């Protein structure tokens, strides 16, 4: 699973955001490497094990001919308190890493296979993620 080698702080703050303002991705919103990509249409926090399971689905369906790129990296630690612990007593311990996804962000890219196979691979990968996504193609 993906995780950073080193982080500046063990625990991260919860992000504040204005509920009136619609957040959209300003970085990573265009296809850069492949011919087809998976674009997020809703916001979510994607954990490293979810990214890995989606990557495995893509790699399995593409076979040896296709190439895939993962365009997101989980660099934000998330915490959890143990089971059956009362409220208070501070923040929980870091459990894993996640990445905040905004609508418009390209999550995965594929190349080297025909359009039908690329589309089915990306759709099956999107079912492993906690967000809604659509398949987009590169326009030259």
Under the CATH scheme, which architecture of one domain would be assigned? Alpha-Beta Complex
Biggest sheet: strand arrangement: 3-6-1-7
Q: What's the helix-strand series?
A: EEHEEEEHE
Largest sheet: 4 strands, antiparallel
| Alpha carbon gyration radius | 17 Å
Relevant CATH superfamily of one domain: Ribosomal protein L16/L10
Distance between the termini: 33 Å
Strand content: 25-35%
* Overall 3D form: globular
Kindly identify the CATH topology of one domain.
Aldehyde Oxidoreductase, domain 3
Overall pLDDT confidence: 94
**Unreliable segments of 5+ consecutive residues:** none
Structural class: alpha+beta
Enumerate how many helices there are, as a single number.
2
Number of strands: 7
Percent of residues in helices: 10-25%
CATH class descriptor of one domain: Alpha Beta
Keywords, please?
140 residues; Aldehyde Oxidoreductase, domain 3; 7 strands; globular
Task: Give the SSE map.
Layout: E1 36-40, E2 44-47, H1 48-62, E3 67-70, E4 76-80, E5 93-101, E6 106-111, H2 115-126, E7 133-137
Antiparallel strand pairs: 1-6, 1-7, 2-5, 3-6, 4-5
Helix pairs in contact: 1-2
Describe what you observe in this structure.
Helix content is 19%, strand content 27%. The protein is an alpha+beta fold and 140 residues long. The protein has a domain of 83 residues: Aldehyde Oxidoreductase, domain 3. The chain has a 4-stranded antiparallel beta sheet with strand order 3-6-1-7, covered by helices on one side. A 3-stranded antiparallel beta sheet has the order 2-5-4. It is globular, with a radius of gyration of 17 Å. The two termini are 33 Å apart.
